[in-house]
Amino acid sequence: MTQNMNLVLGVNFDLLKTNLAAIYEKTDQKSALLVMPTTVNSPNTVKLGEMVDEFKNAFGIEGAGDKIKGNLENVQNEKSPFKWDEIGFQLKAAFLYKEMLGKQTEGTEKASETQSGSGAVSDNGFTEYAFAISVDVADALPRLGMIEINSLFVAVWNTERTGVLAQMGIGNISRMLQQLDT
Questions:
Q1: What are the tens digits of pLDDT across the range 82-99?
Q2: Who's near 77: CB < 8 A, 6+ residues apart?
Q3: 117 and 160 in contact (C-beta within 8 Å)?
Q4: Which pTM was predicted?
Q5: Burial letters 82-102, b for 16+ CB under 10 A, else e
Q6: Residue 8 CA, distance from chain mean position
């Protein structure tokens, strides 16, 4: 009797003060990669000033903060200064699941497609992803009188996993309009 080798490798790391786990799994039937948060809670905010300081300390990069500050000072109004170091970043979602099929056995490919539920499916497997980041500029941008910009966000995803979508904290326009009708 021949036993197939199974392999699992993992790493736990922080990105923008959000704890993530990455796991690679290899079996005879498939290889899979998963990256996701270890806990689902409200994300922490990281200020741009903190990030510049961490890069300086970690890589010995001097002058990086001064260069960013100099570029931003060129476009700001003297009466309402732009506080670049107060720009905050929140990682709202970081999710990746990629499955690659190994040796094909009867029904393996169909089972794999059924498990995914969404994502990009090909003959070699499928990929699901979600990435969302929020940029808090309320304390950084000068007051513009009758309009104030508090935050910006960007998200890209192809998953339909409700837990991941809920973590992103954004909705799509159709769902938002439906809420107005209830």
A1: 788 889 999 989 999 999
A2: 142
A3: yes
A4: 0.71
A5: bbbbebbbbbbbbbbbbbebe
A6: 23
